[in-house]
């Protein structure tokens, strides 16, 4: 039986977080480090992780920034190889990297469409594949995908983003089923609007922010820490019997 007093500790574990430079990815990296994990920072620009790496090191954790633009297949596999050479294993993967520009459906062009799929879907799948191979060899691991409430409800001007996040939820189920025999748990979290540098240009508009808050029964938009907590739970021993699930972190938006 798991000791509930220590079941959220991650000492001795190695976690890779993609899109770790800011927002949700940064919060997840810090939360996992606080729980005891050593951290691999997957970064679109490796130089952007210096301050975060220093903060994690100050917590007494090992940390390695990685050049890892998930839209580039070569960078995915090179980063995972570098991570394994440096740390010997990867126990936790947080697939956080993603993009989502608002655009009316009638104005979406092929480049917009392909860019969203390349990062949100192709990047998530092949990062999971590369790390999944490591986890299969080592006998287990945890994968947590960052989805969105947009995968469950329709949002105006977000048709492509909504489509990719709906696919993330189903991919989570597929990988969970296929890799359960290897002791790999695959889950997702689906946040509502979160205060990040990526959402600032919308949430700073008073009218838009008010319209969002009205849709959230708990009456507020989220903070990155609101997502990092559930990610930490799913990465921990406390969630050992959970796989294939998408945990809504939406303040109640989708229960209406």
Notable characteristics:
43% helix; alpha/beta; 256 residues; 7-stranded parallel β-sheet; Rossmann fold; 7 strands
Give a brief rundown of this model.
The protein has 256 residues and is an alpha/beta fold.
CATH architecture designation: 3-Layer(aba) Sandwich
List how many beta strands DSSP finds.
7
Strand line-up of the largest beta sheet = 3-2-1-4-5-6-7
What's the story with the biggest beta sheet?
7 strands, parallel
Q: Distance between termini? A: 37 Å
CATH topology: Rossmann fold
Number of helices: 8
Strand proportion: 5-15%
Count of domain modules: 1
The portion of residues assigned to helices is 40-55%
Average pLDDT figure: 96
Poorly predicted regions are none
User: Would you state the CATH class?
Assistant: Alpha Beta
* Series of H and E elements: EHEHEHEHEHEHHHE
CATH superfamily: NAD(P)-binding Rossmann-like Domain
Shape: globular
Radius of gyration: 17 Å
Question: What features would you describe in this structure?
Answer:
The chain is an alpha/beta fold. The chain has a single domain, classed as Rossmann fold, CATH 3.40.50. It is built from eight helices and seven strands; from the N terminus they run βαβαβαβαβαβαααβ. A seven-stranded parallel beta sheet has the order 3-2-1-4-5-6-7, sandwiched between helices. α4 (110-138) runs parallel beside α5 (159-179). The chain starts with 13 loop residues before the first strand and ends in a 7-residue tail after the last strand. The model has no long low-confidence stretch (mean pLDDT 96).
